[in-house]
Amino acid sequence: MDCYAAIQTPQGSLLYFNSSWQLTDTQAPFAQKALLSAAPLSGVLTDISVPAAAPIWTYTLYLVTVRALMDLWDTEYWTSNLAEIQFEVVQ
Questions:
Q1: Which of 15, 34, 46, 64 has the greatest number of beta carbons closer than 10 A?
Q2: Residue 34's pLDDT is what?
Q3: What is the predicted pLDDT for the residue at 40?
Q4: pLDDT in tens, the chain (91 residues)
Q5: What is the DSSP string of 31-81?
Q6: Please, is 14 exposed, middle or buried when counting C-beta atoms within 10 Å of its C-beta (0-12, 13-18, 19+)?
Q7: Whole-structure pTM value
Q8: DSSP 3-state of 8
Q9: CA distance 12 to 54
Q10: pLDDT at 17
Q11: Is 17 helix (H, G, I), strand (E, B) or coil?
Q12: Pick from 56, 14, 40, 38: which is nearest to 4 by CA?
């Protein structure tokens, strides 16, 4: 399966986490051809720092898994529910 994580920006666009956990505007999985049997059942996926220059906003983080090498936007190939969580950046 391919694993995707993205954050919706204040402008409404999505920024994707690549395999190095860097944000990019290019649709990219953070894990490609991953085996579900190798995934932990629980725990921390990654530790992400919010840049100090990030605008004050309520952001949404999305996570989904898709059959390997298939179209992210074709829900027929999703192998998980779309997970989403909102978080606020405040000063």
A1: 64
A2: 87
A3: 67
A4: 999 999 999 999 999 999 998 999 999 999 999 887 777 677 777 777 888 888 899 999 999 999 999 999 999 999 999 999 999 998 7
A5: BSS--GGGS-SSS-----PPPTTPPSEEEEEEEEEESTTS-TT-GGGBSS-
A6: middle
A7: 0.86
A8: strand
A9: 14
A10: 94
A11: strand
A12: 14
**Residues in CB range of 73: below 8 A, 6 or more apart:** none
The token pair at 70 is 């298939």
Two structure tokens written together for 66: 């898709």
- What is residue 74's predicted lDDT score, i.e. its pLDDT? 97
**Residues counted in the chain:** 91
Separation of alpha carbons 82 and 91, rounded Å: 29
**Token match 């993205």: residue?**
6
Listed by start position, the domains of the chain span 2-89
Yes or no: say if 64 and 83 are a contact pair by the CB < 8 Å rule.
yes
User: Are 1 and 70 spatial neighbours (Cβ–Cβ below 8 Å)?
Assistant: no
